[in-house]
């Protein structure tokens, strides 16, 4: 099949979270299954600077919000060989830094116009209106940044024989791409679509809703999350539409895979001491632990390397249960010998909280505020257990990376975390199923209880090694999930 894959991030060119890894992993897997995938991405300045050969294949004028913009479609090839198109819109994407936010951590003032116009252009490419030498059979769109692609496809196809075929994947329903009516009008969407059955969302305009109401099929990134988003507790106001999709058989939950070329402890170029489930696992993990401590602890020699090291990597936001973690660390440090290694960035209040904790316990809590791909891999390899007490988690990749690295995850039973981690009881350990520690509720008390269980089990080397072995024996490669996406493409596109 020929599929146009629209995304606002792709590893390694531009990444703020899991979407980038998923875009790369899924497209590579589809390509390996002999399907033709072309990724379409905004021509961010930082991406353009990383690409060697880029050339124009089409250009077009688009009038949006009263401004006539010249848009260029560029072709490039990325290292893995997946074809790539870039949408270059001077003034909108040629700025340095994060794709969504300025240096102060505020959303770019014109995100609506940026991703609205990007989606409009992607829809034209998906319908082959620009006469490129490659015509897709349909589009696969991801999150609110490309939510309007299915909507524009429907709009542009309405006065032609073209078939608007698209699949829309929800990676995180809590980001709904909400903007005022003026943007809806400025993007040239028909006024008859300004109603609750179409793009109006409680008096505002939601770009994500464009994907939900106009795509042929909706997927999300785990079976449990697919059920959760149909409830008022997990639906962020979209539960009504999603229930309808579920009833019509238009909603599927497909668990993400992991890219085993990039996240593989036996071949990871970021880690100092590679290891595998078969060979030297225990000794090498100890060395990686010392290595990560050297990276982060000013006086690493005085850190007790025999004590369990609990790791965390991720966005510091309410979704991830960052506040629960902050609260659980103090009693754990006071009452047990557990140490903590934390990498992340996000809301100022949490960044400040961790910085303070590191000052208070300089030999027990090690913190790096910021984004560092290499350190993320080193923490997965060097920590003994991994913390993910998310309030909700559509899929989550870090718990799967942790399993692959023999770093049992401590997770809350929600979304993809529930679908990928099995609590370690004596029985589940023995049967080979137990892989981590599962909190039934997202509370500090539950997190502490799981941390204490982990510390206790860590003191029983044979049981801990069994847990690590179970974790590392799981298969989270992309093959199965890519096949599930293909089935949906084949029936819908
Ligand atoms: P989400 O997409 O909600 O942030 P996921 O678990 O799906 O959560 O994916 C997060 C990805 O981003 C992982 O690959 C993780 O290692 C990476 N990541 C998050 N924060 C950081 C950070 N501060 N430094 C390096 N990598 C990070
Ligand atoms: C989102 C979700 C995360 C998921 C990722 C990739 O960022 O928060 O749970 O793993 O997308 O699908």
Written account of the structure:
It is a single chain. The protein is of the alpha/beta class and 493 residues long. 38% of the residues lie in helices and 19% in strands. The chain contains 18 helices and 18 strands. It has helices at residues 18-32, 45-48, 111-126, 148-157, 181-186, 207-214, 223-228, 239-247, 281-296, 322-335, 348-360, 373-382, 398-404, 415-420, 426-431, 444-458, 461-472, 479-492, and strands at 2-6, 36-42, 54-64, 67-77, 83-88, 138-142, 166-170, 178-179, 200-201, 204-206, 217-220, 251-253, 309-316, 339-346, 365-369, 385-388, 409-412, 437-439. It has a nine-stranded mixed β-sheet, with helices on both faces. It has a six-stranded parallel β-sheet with strand order 15-14-13-16-17-18, with helices on both faces. Helix 10 runs parallel beside helix 11. The radius of gyration is 23 Å and the shape is globular. The N and C termini lie close together (9 Å). The model has no long low-confidence stretch (mean pLDDT 95). The structure holds adenosine-5'-diphosphate and alpha-D-glucopyranose (GLC). Adenosine-5'-diphosphate binds at residues 17-18, 21, 313-315, 343-345, 371-373, 376, 395-398.
